[in-house]
Design a protein that fits this description.
Blueprint lengths: L3 E7 L15 H11 L5 E7 L1 H14 L7 E5 L8 H5 L4 H5 L5 H9 L10 E5 L21 H4 L6 H11 L3 E7 L21 E11 H21 L6 H11 L4 E6 L15 H5 L4 H6 L6
Parallel strand pairs: 1-2, 1-4, 2-3, 5-7
Antiparallel strand pairs: 4-6, 5-6
Helix pairs in contact: 8-9
Length: 294
């Protein structure tokens, strides 16, 4: 049996609803997840809606011959997530309708862990849309056809997976972005920090580790999330709670670091080339986990 399992989800019809979500992601999530599936030494579970299940099965199983053993879909009603009542008690519905992030999905990245039976040695959450040209330079994108040129990257492979597991070791893997010189995000209230530090913003696109670590991390997330939502206004993104956890419980984590999202191929026009000499782009983490050093 395989040793590693990735947990992910695809919901592409939430934009403009009371849940909120990114628009125009129908092809993005499908083609990106197809790229991630080159990690054939791992199995994947993808949560989705009953409405989207048929089209996903057609794309992956029929059109692209993906193994039903490697990729399984599970119907989950994201409208009735584990934290629905708590979220709804804090939600500004009209604001959410105009936003591009779904809090229910963000928090479910942790809640879905409790559906697992622990039969794999390693578990990682990975965003289905992580493989795309907004993060990865052209030299690492498959230019053989139109759609693959946006999403298909050889950087996601079994060597990447093996090195990810090795780097994680006995801790819990996180990716953190520099948040002072290249400011990205505010934090939850400083009152929640043992010693306030906003210098690293943890991203929610890829995290995990050995199965023995998950209960502790998920329970920690839920505790902070419930306390913050009970006392403070608003609905903090999962990344803000993860950033707090990283500071207050740093000994639990093994972290990869980057400074900026862009690479020269996808940066805004007019950006000074020195930016890429002085800062580490996100894709460099993918290189490192492929043992590529330039």
């Amino acid at each position: 049996m395989k040793k590693t399992k990735f947990i992910t989800c695809i919901y592409t019809d939430l934009y403009g609803s009371e849940l909120g979500g990114r628009p125009g992601r129908y092809n993005h999530y499908r083609w990106s997840l197809l790229s991630l599936l080159k990690m054939t030494d791992a199995d994947f579970i993808c949560y989705t809606s009953e409405k989207e299940l048929g089209s996903l099965e057609d794309f992956f199983y029929t059109q692209n011959n993906v193994s039903r053993d490697q990729l399984k879909f599970s119907i989950y009603d994201i409208w009735n997530s584990k934290y629905k009542d708590l979220i709804n008690s804090r939600k500004d519905v009209e604001f959410i309708k105009k936003g591009d992030r779904c809090i229910e999905i963000q928090y479910s990245k942790f809640a879905w862990w409790f559906n697992e039976d622990g039969s794999y040695e390693n578990y990682y959450w990975i965003d289905a849309g992580l493989s795309h040209c907004g993060l990865i330079p052209v030299k690492y994108l498959d230019q053989s056809d139109y759609m693959r040129g946006f999403y298909e990257s050889p950087l996601f492979n079994n060597s990447f997976l093996e090195n990810l597991i090795h780097f994680t070791g006995d801790k819990f893997f996180l990716i953190g972005k520099e948040n002072n010189r290249n400011f990205w995000s505010q934090t939850v209230s400083p009152k929640w920090y043992n010693n306030y530090d906003r210098s690293i913003h943890i991203i929610g696109g890829l995290f995990g580790g050995k199965k023995e670590k998950w209960d502790e991390i998920v329970n920690l997330f839920e505790t902070y999330m419930k306390n913050i939502l009970t006392e403070d206004e608003g609905l903090p993104h999962e990344e803000l709670i993860m950033s707090l956890m990283h500071v207050n419980h740093n000994e639990l984590f093994e972290r990869k670091h980057f400074d900026i999202w862009w690479c020269p191929d996808n940066a805004p026009q007019g950006v000074n080339p020195e930016l890429f000499e002085q800062n580490k782009s996100f894709y460099r983490i993918l290189e490192e986990l492929n043992n590529i050093y330039e």
